[in-house]
Amino acid sequence: MMPDLPNMPPSPYAALYDLLIPADDELRLIHDLVSFDFVTDLLADTYCHDNGRMAIRKARTGTKNIGKNQKETQYFDIKLCKQCPLREGCYKDGAKSRTHRA
């Protein structure tokens, strides 16, 4: 469904969707006819491409006006990270938050 995200694993429910939703369904036709690239552009600064989740907030970290660059940090919902199949690479048990620096 999202061909521009090659690192994102396919949904385990993709085969189920194909069985339940007919090929001539209205939603499938809309998806084929309408480009939703504008949504990707709008959400690009809060979307994490390595896990496919939306950040709940973002902040700039680092000292200001010292000559060092500030970095943008994205914060993610831990409840979702605990259930994620990709959690071993990014989530540690007992963590209160999960961040990703852009």
How would you explain this protein's 3D organization?
The structure is a single chain. By secondary structure, this protein is an alpha+beta fold. It has one domain (14-101). Helices cover 27% and strands 19% of the residues. It is built from four helices and five strands, in the order H-H-H-E-E-E-E-H-E. It has helices spanning 14-20, 26-33, 37-43, 78-83, and strands spanning 47-48, 53-54, 57-61, 71-76, 98-101. The strands form two sheets. Strands 3-4-5 form a three-stranded antiparallel β-sheet. A two-stranded antiparallel ribbon has the order 1-2. Strand 1 (47-48) and strand 2 form a beta hairpin. It is flat, with a radius of gyration of 18 Å. The mean pLDDT is 74.
SSE blueprint and pairings:
Layout: H1 14-20, H2 26-33, H3 37-43, E1 47-48, E2 53-54, E3 57-61, E4 71-76, H4 78-83, E5 98-101
Antiparallel strand pairs: 1-2, 3-4, 4-5
Quick description:
By secondary structure, the protein is α+β, with helices and mostly antiparallel strands.
What is the number of domains? Answer: 1
Helix content: 25-40%
Distance between termini? Answer: 25 Å
Q: List the secondary-structure elements in sequence, H or E.
A: HHHEEEEHE
